[in-house]
Design brief:
The protein is mainly alpha-helical. It has one domain. 76% of the residues lie in helices and 0% in strands. The protein is built from ten helices and no strands. The two termini are 23 Å apart.
Length: 238
């Protein structure tokens, strides 16, 4: 059952340019996985999903590296630092629950209309945002893409189409360094990670194809928001 749900989550998230870290954490919370396994497992699945999406988007030459480079410059060290921080189980679940609720609020407010980027990206601002998102990514295991896309769109630094292609490489880079960081703290992913990864990859393949064929993400976003809200409340009250 867990593998099937992971594949579905991966498909839905990949179709809107995300890896699924928030929903993977939600699913793990539902199944009662320990907090020491939740973060590295979610980061590991992020890597699998985002790696495929990054490869496919880059092959189709739709990744705007001019925007992505300064984001990665600051976010990757911050994500590593976040991965090295170990929180008490209750604190981790509460913080992650709040992050999931914030992610759901961000997704609700995210604009659905496409618009071309009209503003240049201020270097100081984009580096600061990258650092903040990287820290959250490594600390909780969410990947950061669910916050990156609406931030870029709201600030008019990128169009929705651009953010769909920017999110996977951002998630891939930060999840990778965050994942490495967790090993230094003695946290290890679920023994079933390989099986989960195969399911996630299958979903990512289907979801990325859907994304490249311009699926309207409004309905998918509604489902994802519902999952995030339920899981966020569950973690906060745990």
């Amino acid at each position: 059952m867990a593998c099937l749900l992971i594949a579905i989550i991966s498909l839905l998230y990949a179709s809107v340019g995300q890896a699924g870290g928030t929903a993977f954490l939600s699913l793990m919370a539902f199944f009662g996985m320990s907090s020491t396994e939740m973060r590295p497992t979610a980061l590991g699945l992020n890597i699998v999903v985002a790696a495929y999406s990054t490869w496919l988007f880059n092959r189709n030459k739709v990744v705007d590296w001019a925007i992505l480079r300064p984001l990665l410059f600051s976010s990757m060290p911050a994500s590593l630092a976040g991965g090295l921080i170990v929180l008490d189980g209750h604190v981790y679940k509460t913080l992650t629950g709040l992050v999931l609720l914030l992610a759901s609020a961000v997704m609700i407010m995210q604009r659905g209309r496409a618009a071309d980027r009209v503003c240049e990206t201020p270097l100081t601002a984009i580096v600061s945002i990258g650092a903040a998102l990287g820290l959250v990514s490594g600390l909780t295991g969410v990947g950061g893409g669910v916050f990156l896309a609406p931030t870029l769109i709201t600030l008019n630094w990128a169009s929705p189409k651009q953010t769909v292609a920017l999110s996977p490489p951002f998630i891939l880079a930060n999840s990778t360094v965050g994942f490495v960081g967790t090993f230094f703290t003695g946290q290890f992913p679920s023994p079933d990670l390989a099986l989960y990864a195969i399911s996630a990859l299958a979903g990512a393949v289907a979801g990325t194809i859907v994304s490249l064929n311009c699926l309207n993400p409004a309905g998918i976003r509604f489902i994802l928001v519902a999952v995030l809200v339920i899981a966020g409340i569950q973690l906060v009250l745990a």
